Amino acid sequence: MTTELTMAKALNLAMRTAMEADNKVILFGEDIGKLGGVFRVTDGLHKDFGEHRVIDSPLAESGIVGTAIGLAMRGYRPVLEIQFDGFVFPGFDQIISQLAKVHRRTHGSVKLPITVRIPYGGGIGAVEHHSESPEAFFAHIPGLRVLTPSDPQSAYSCLLSAIRSDDPVIFFEPKRRYWDKGVVDQSQAIADPWRARILRTGSDVSVVAYGPMVKTALQAAEASEYSLEVIDLQSLSPLDDKSVAESVQRTGRLVIVHEAPGTLGLGAEVAARIGKSCFYNLMAPIERVTGYDIPYPPSKLEEYYLPDHDRILFAVDSVMEA
Amino acid sequence: MTTARASPKSSNPAVQLLTPEGELASHDTYSLILTDAEYKLLYREMVFVRRLDQEATALQRQGQLGLWASSLGQEAAQVGSAFALEKNDFAFPTYRDHGVAWMRGVDPMKIMQVYRGISNGGWDPFEHRCNTYTIVIGNQVLNGVGYAMGLTLDQSEDAVITYFGDGATAQGDVHEGFVFASTFDSPVVFFCQNNQWAISQPSEKFVKSPIYKRADGFGFPGVLVDGNDILAVIAVTRTALERARSGAGPTLIEAFTYRMAAHTTSDDPTRYRHENDLQNWKLKDPIERLKVMLARNGIADRSFFDAVDAEADTWGETLRTSVRLMPEPPPESIFDHVYTEKHDVLDAQRAAFIEYHEGFADSGVH
Description:
The structure holds 2 protein chains of 2 kinds.
Chain A: E1 2-6, H1 7-21, E2 25-29, H2 45-49, E3 54-56, H3 61-73, E4 77-81, H4 92-99, H5 102-105, E5 115-120, H6 135-139, E6 145-147, H7 152-164, E7 169-174, E8 181-185, E9 197-200, E10 205-209, H8 213-223, E11 228-232, E12 235-237, H9 241-251, E13 254-261, H10 266-277, E14 287-291, H11 302-305, H12 309-321
Parallel strand pairs in A: 2-3, 2-4, 4-5, 5-7, 6-7, 10-11, 10-13, 13-14
Antiparallel strand pairs in A: 1-8, 6-12, 9-11
Chain B: H1 36-61, H2 75-83, E1 90-92, H3 98-103, H4 108-116, H5 125-128, H6 139-153, E2 160-165, H7 172-183, E3 188-194, E4 197-198, E5 201-202, H8 203-206, H9 214-218, E6 222-226, H10 230-245, E7 251-256, H11 276-282, H12 286-296, H13 302-324, H14 344-363
Parallel strand pairs in B: 1-2, 2-3, 3-7, 6-7
Antiparallel strand pairs in B: 4-5
């Protein structure tokens, strides 16, 4: 079945589908019930599945994650909503110390099939703590899987896969793309969410992006005088550097784009791996286009922080001219 | 000094010195005597704080502010508690406590900067002895306790007041704040404005025993006050501050009030509460009841109320114009104040940033 949906609706549909298929799937988070979440991603699910499966939690992120671990040990498959990226940190301890480590600690006896949905990234004119990109913290932690979709189709497919996974998945939703529309094919066999997707083929430069920056990278490719191959990582952990390497072996040049600060960001890991696997293919140093190493600025200045298609083109020029 | 007579004691467990009908009430433990000038000042301050809120709400609707968190209905709790502070006391407010910032002398334009997206802080906490707004729910409670611990170490007679809402009472940070303050007998007042809504969640759902009673379990007193009664709020806050200064430790005050507006301008409360719920609370309006008291006791008359309104009108107009004309900071200021000392990596990024943007200026492209 094919429908045109916003990313928010596609995520909603993925949860609905998962809840219909498995009555152990429950949603848990702040204001996700009657209100439908502050971004309305869970809109209507409270009405259709009831307050025992779409649960408004008290206002405490450590509480949400910590109790979800207990719920999972009792056989539930919780899908959590953290209201905003900058509010995940009270729950960070439970995520790092317990969620990521229980399976290993119990020699595989306890599985924690928990999905932690986190709207992330900037570009919506918000106040502090509402525009951050903390994905590298989580991708750094063994035991967690990290996914981030870039369009409605990947949102639908990735969230279904995350919920079905028996591993904990930190699921970053690019909030500035919530209202972008796209075709969602439910009947199509779900492509492997743990693999990067090539969204546009090109021969001069491989441009790697994920989440909110994929659209920006595609816009840059449209505007560029060069032939850009745009790759959506989709999975940040595990990182599918093999697909990236195959692309760079063809193009010989790589530009990596993300909103998060550059230092020790995902781009550093991609660059290190490609620097090794494609050392003899690279015709220019790898370039990164990222947020600066500063706290996310007040919204009037966020356009100066966020990578835009001009900055991507600037980096493309520099690898082409190297 | 007013000559007003108090009406018989109320059976309401909340401390109340001024009824919703504007009658003065007596209380076994708490009383408050202010000068007529002070009563009038309190009225004026609440009118201005409400005007600030109305102007900001309108400015947000016009696209002049990115967001606004309304303090409507909570003026007595905020203005009254901050009125009780001494100059050197230190307040730790949340993003909704405009009445507190106002009373601490913070220029409202600096509050506007935060909601216009120009600054993440707006003012210097040390200038006003008022911390910048904390947005992450509950974080500031521990920070306030720590400041109070410092006061004890310094053998200071100052005190701290830290604000939070009913929603925040679910957070670990708030409970840890209680434990630390109790452990060290810290000179801090925990001022909880129970406005009964944590965005869409009614506090009755997750507060099964009154918030103020939690203090018992931590070993310090808790008191429930009518949060829309500015006189009672001042009285209980003063008592709590005196206790703090004396070295006896913290107090938890639960100011029972109501969030009359949406959580923020991004919120749509029609999805989770009925308009009727507001009617009952409109009758308990904090400003109206003080106005009735002032008029009934001959402390102020129509000419005073009209003059305050006229002054607020003029002030509101100036605020609107000033917000529209507010200059934006230079782009490279995003690199400012990340560190106290020179940082080579960031300095290089700033230089590259400036060079990059100057490149666009040269080419005329942007």
